[in-house]
């Protein structure tokens, strides 16, 4: 496999024609994460106790130990799959959806993130027009009829994609600015062929640099609770987990950021933050 050349990566705002490719990338990145979160919840002591109580009651009704054990677990799994926020699959978000069209409102402009590797190598990233997909024109027509306003873009936030030679390799999502000087990364995805090549680090650090220049002083990121890889990744980038710092309790700003919670109030995400 050819190693990714980071100095050839262009990080730009997502455009409308990129939406389907980004959705496919997210689906690939979320694979298996939701099931690990459900397993995490099912193995909590309080959840096990509730399942045991319901199993005991059903044991008297169905006269089958296996059915009495399986039915409550099956129903709870269905309930969790329906109610769990879809955004938690990669990085937690306060909303269970993402306004893709609204986030591409200004994506048609040549708005890019700085790539520090270009300055080091002295090379200019090469871009290539992506190949047209079947039916893309019809989809673009449908999207263009939607009313997109600056207010809708502000509420949707921003999506940045990493592109090399016309291929989208990864993406990072920044939520809308609800607090002055505070930014929130709600999704970070890299293609399976480009993991452990530094692409995720490049996306995060480049976005941090941009937000620092626009006046932000702190960035938050939520990591799925069972994800050890995501936790180690953000720690390497200088992020601290909420609650570990000695002065966390005195920081009123930190108290406003809470982890995503699911069934019985169990945390689904771990909150990390970094001062820029």
Shape: elongated
- The pLDDT mean sits at 79
What is the strand tally?
A: 8
Query: Helix content range of the residues, please?
Result: 40-55%
Which tags fit this structure?
about 40% helix, alpha+beta, 8-stranded mixed beta sheet
Give a concise summary.
The protein has 276 residues and is of the alpha+beta class.
Describe the structure.
The protein contains eleven helices and eight strands. α3 crosses α4. The two termini are 36 Å apart. Strands 2-1-3-4-5-6-8-7 form an eight-stranded mixed β-sheet, with helices on both faces. Helix content is 41%, strand content 17%. β5, α9 and β6 form a beta-alpha-beta unit. The relative contact order is 0.18. The protein has 276 residues and is of the alpha+beta class. It is elongated.
What does the secondary structure layout of this molecule look like, with pairings?
Blueprint: E1 10-13, H1 19-30, H2 33-42, H3 45-62, H4 65-83, H5 100-103, E2 112-113, H6 116-121, H7 136-144, H8 150-156, E3 158-164, E4 167-174, E5 182-190, H9 199-213, E6 218-224, H10 228-236, E7 240-241, H11 252-255, E8 269-275
Parallel strand pairs: 5-6
Antiparallel strand pairs: 1-2, 1-3, 3-4, 4-5, 6-8, 7-8
Helix pairs in contact: 3-4
